[in-house]
């Protein structure tokens, strides 16, 4: 079986790491595959470091970059793949139609799709949560063309990455016993750190010693900084920017917190579970498919989020990582989809 994996590689977030893990696991199963992605991207670098998958880098400056289209077209002619697997909207827009290869696309976000979207012109969509499948079906995509395969992680890899401590308390000049709530997410609207900051304000009366660390970068940094200042939380809420060793940071948390209002699945939560951390999150998108109801609060409810975090600090209740959320399980399920199409 020959598979051409396509990802625009515009950033390095959970979705790109899933592509890396899929390539790695499929290579171990003997699948002949090529990954085409943006030249110099983190995805290209990490996949090449793993080995086992040919990486075809290309210039990819914007969504439908003709340079990327030309590179993909030539790869299809040379490699003659059985499967074209697109991992984001831009990649799907570049996937050639009408040839012998079957087109698979992975949908990682719980956003609606347009009436004439390319997501309606695939042989199979892999949705990473039931919540995403329901949205696609509501938008008119036949349910029979959607397969739910959740994201997966390599728990051992996550634990190895967290062995060397991040020493975040020392960096923030906090005592080693200071309670710490950690959020790792891009500073974008659907991650909704504004609710997280308001939760920090609500929790201050009950736990004045609690600090909150937000690791991530994005276009909302300015408005989040302003919100922190407005609520007088500059001494309690810390915007860390992009953190290269996120797993080490999560390991030092007393509780991991997600405040998203939209979330395909929330794969970073899986990392927190693998590290044995208690998690509190909003019931957004596919998050309830990972966590029990006792760990969840309504979307946008900062007061409920604050109460749940304070309660979790008092009575920590970590949840074990369910076995279906491993990279191996994910890759075997994807491979089964490939075989079903061939």
Give your account of this protein's structure:
By secondary structure, the protein is an alpha/beta fold. It has 2 domains: 167 residues, Glycogen Phosphorylase B (Rossmann fold, 3-Layer(aba) Sandwich), CATH 3.40.50.2000; 168 residues, Glycogen Phosphorylase B (Rossmann fold, 3-Layer(aba) Sandwich), CATH 3.40.50. The protein is 37% helix and 17% strand. It has a 7-stranded parallel β-sheet with strand order 3-2-1-4-5-6-7, with helices on both faces. Strands 10-9-8-11-12-13 form a 6-stranded parallel β-sheet, sandwiched between helices. Helix 8 packs across helix 12.
Q: In DSSP terms, counting alpha (H) and pi (I) runs of 4 or more, how many helices? A: 13
Largest beta sheet: what is the strand line-up? 3-2-1-4-5-6-7
Please estimate the helix content: 25-40%
CATH architecture level-2 label of the largest domain: 3-Layer(aba) Sandwich
Please report the total strand number as a whole number. 13
The rough form would be described as elongated
Distance between the termini: 9 Å
Rg from alpha-carbon coordinates:
21 Å
Number of domain units: 2
Whole-number mean pLDDT: 96
Largest sheet: 7 strands, parallel
- Element pattern in H and E: EHEHEHEHEEHEHHEHEHEHEHEEHH
The percent range for strand residues is: 15-25%
CATH uppermost class of the largest domain:
Alpha Beta
- Class derived from helix and strand content: alpha/beta
